[in-house]
Each structure stands twice: as structure tokens, then as C-alpha cells.
Design brief:
Two copies of one chain form a homodimer.
Chain A: H1 17-33, H2 40-47, H3 61-86, H4 92-109, H5 111-118, H6 129-151, H7 160-179, H8 189-207
The first copy, chain A, binds a DNA duplex (16 and 16 nucleotides) through residues 10, 13, 18, 39-42, 49-53, 55-56, 60-61.
Chain lengths: 213, 213
DNA sequence: CCTACCGATCGGTAGG
DNA sequence: CCTACCGATCGGTAGG
């Protein structure tokens, strides 16, 4: 009688669940090894299938990258909205602070998503429609808070897009500096979150209208 | 008589000038094709030499990457100091604005340098000393302006490093969003610089002490 | 600074 | 979803 070897991980995939497993594998490669570590073959190996299997679910490498990025945008949007829901204040500056906290928290928890979205891995010449929509939805959450704050007179500093872009730039820049390990190494995760919170408050004050300060 | 072919580019290199040519070639690859387009072989080909030649000047690929990054830090420092020299105001908020303009202007003009410095191309586990020093010098320019502004009472918002990090994060985040083409494509270069300038003023107001607003 | 070579990895396809 | 194969590219070394 033949010795029964342990089931291979591949046996666990069916009905297209391999697709999500490959997304997770790609994300893990990005998080641990950076953009250069992401390949279809490595993702397939991590998922326990042959290197030809991914082509049953993704037309090419770009398709996998886009799928990861789209999921990243969706989760980022959820993270920001969750933080917004937890914020009991109704004034725009504090709601902006909550958004920033959500963004930074998500970035530090899931660096792979930010690398694939912003790290130049995506081919921008021909982005799939779903990815554009997901990105727009994430931006609209921020823009909505800013626009309402400007209308209510709680914020100032320019048109909605300029102010929103300023907020986005700061939390995004801080997130990327943390992820890219550009900050001194003695700044640990806990300190990063603390500095992030302080910075977000600073920005909230900066865009607040002078009369309300 | 043998036909005399046109001189190969390789004939132009001597006395170690190939080293700088390889740095420039690597920079061009990074600027045009992103982090994934940088390889020792491609850089050698761009410089017109065999793929083994670079090893006469760089121990391995990491050494070339570090050399590009170090030069990037030096030029970034120069760009910030030049903009600071052109700033005729003495108050910290406006000097911070000049620094930010210098940073964004350099980033948009030389995206390859920022990609190699912050794009996760460098192996952070064992950075050469020269690179660390160059990075520290660039940061010190910013930190100096912030620290003097806090001492003079022109700025507020926290300790020097937190305020400096907030400023750095914003201009860095905006620069990366522009470079990574994460902004809508209808935002052209000119608009980017205009929005950048507006954003920098916004931040300058944000970190200004309330009494001086 | 060159040619020639090494092993490894990659994206992708053929054919089942 | 598999094995087997393709051409291309990579970092790096031997030897001159």
C-alpha cells in the first residue's frame, strides 16, 4: 500500500478560492520583501500550486497586481470610514484627524497594500476601470469631509481639492517614510503612531479657520 | 585596409569617469522605467560598456544603488539650501516654505533620485556610512530652520523633530504622489507646482504660533 | 575593460 | 490545475 503523504495546500483550493489565496500571497511578498519580491511564480509557490496555475485566474502579472491594489483601496476606504464612525466629534478638524489616523494605522498595519498602490508597481498607462473607481472612492471620503468643513466655515485654506490634497500628502508622506524605514530606527511602531497623531492634530489646526482657533 | 567604425561610447571613459556615467545611467533607468528597470547590466549598456565593466567601480548592485542615493541626498541638500538662499525673508514660516519648494522642485525634476532613496530599492539592513551621513545632512537643514523658528517663538506645535517631521511628511507625500502619478492626469506639472506652493503656505500657517497669525 | 560562461529567476505558453 | 518547455534577463565570476 502506498504511503499517504500529507495533503498539499493545493488541495484546499476550489471554486476560485485560489484567486484570493494568490492575492494574499502577493501581499505577503510585498510586505516582507518589497516591490521586487513580487512575482507570479513566487505567489504560486506560496499558495502551494504550480507556477502555471495563476493564469487560470489572472490574465498576466499586471492583473494580479491590479487585483491587490483594488483590494487595498477597498480596505483603506473601510479603515478610514471605521475610524470616522468611531469619532464622536462633528467638527471637520477632528474628523480629519480621525481620517488621518485611519490612513496611517492602515498603512503601518498593511505596508504591502501601500507599496503596490503607490510604489510604482502598477502600470498606469492602462489601469483597469475597477481600480480607478476604488481609488476615487477612497479619495471621495476625504474630499467629502473637507468640502463639508469648508462649507460650514470650520476649515479654510483654499478650494476643497487643495486642502484635501494637503491633508492627504501629509498622512501619506508620513506613512511612506515609516514604511520605507526612512525614519531613524529608534523610532518604533508605538512612537510612530504617537507622532502621527500629533502631526494630524497639527494639520487640523493649520486648516482650521482663524476665527475658530 | 580595415574600415574604421565610429568610436564606441566606451572610448570616452577613462580615469574612473565611468563610475559617474554609470550613476547617471542608473538614474535615467529609474526615472524612466521605475525601480524595476534598474539593473547593473542595463546601466552598463546605457553607458556603452560590457556588463562586467561596472564591477571595476562597484562591488555589487547595492553599491551602485547606494552611490546614486548618496548623490541624490547631496543634490537635494543643495537644492534646499539654494532655495533658502533665494528667500529674502527671515521668518521661519516663509523659510520653511522655501525649503518645501526646493524639495518639491527637486523631486519633480529628478524623480529617479527620490525613487532610489525612498522607493525601497536600498537595502536598509546594511547602509554604507556615507549614505547615512548624507541623509542626516539633508534632514539637518530642515531641522535647523524649525528649531530656530521654535526658539524665536515664530513656530509652535511641539518639539523640533515632530514639527520638522510634519513639514517633511507633507512635502514628501505630495512629491511622491506626483512622481507616482497617483494624482489625476489632468493635473499637469505646472499645476502641481502651483498646488505645492499653496500647500506649503498652508502648512507654514499651521505651524505658526497663534499670536503671530 | 573585454568575452564567455554559470546558476537562478522571470513571464508566458503548449498540451494535456 | 499539472508538467515541460521557451526565450529573456538577471547578478556575479573566471580568465585574460
Amino acid at each position: 500500500m502506498a504511503i499517504r503523504v500529507a495533503r498539499k495546500p493545493s488541495d484546499a483550493y476550489q471554486h476560485g478560492s485560489l484567486r484570493q489565496a494568490l492575492v494574499q500571497a502577493g501581499l505577503k511578498l510585498l510586505s516582507e520583501g518589497g516591490a521586487g519580491a513580487l512575482s507570479l511564480r513566487a505567489a504560486a509557490q506560496l499558495a502551494g500550486v504550480s507556477h502555471a496555475a495563476p493564469y487560470r485566474h489572472f490574465r498576466d502579472k499586471d492583473a494580479l497586481v491590479s487585483a491587490i491594489a483594488e483590494q487595498g483601496f477597498l480596505l483603506l476606504t473601510e479603515a478610514m470610514q471605521a475610524e470616522l464612525g468611531r469619532c464622536r466629534h462633528e467638527d471637520a478638524p477632528r474628523r480629519l484627524g480621525a481620517l488621518g489616523q485611519g490612513y496611517i494605522g492602515f498603512a503601518l498595519a498593511h505596508p504591502g497594500y501601500l507599496r503596490v498602490i503607490f510604489g510604482g508597481v502598477i502600470d498606469k498607462t492602462n489601469p483597469p476601470e475597477g481600480l480607478l473607481i476604488a481609488g476615487q472612492r477612497a479619495y471621495d471620503v476625504l474630499r467629502g469631509v473637507v468640502a463639508r468643513g469648508l462649507e460650514a466655515g470650520e476649515l479654510s485654506g483654499g478650494d476643497p481639492d487643495t486642502v484635501a490634497l494637503a491633508c492627504w500628502s501629509m498622512v501619506h508622506g508620513f506613512s511612506m517614510l515609516c514604511i520605507d524605514q526612512a525614519l531613524p530606527s529608534f523610532v518604533d511602531r508605538k512612537t510612530q503612531l504617537k507622532i502621527g497623531a500629533q502631526m494630524v492634530r497639527l494639520l487640523a489646526v493649520g486648516v482650521q479657520t482663524p476665527a475658530k482657533r
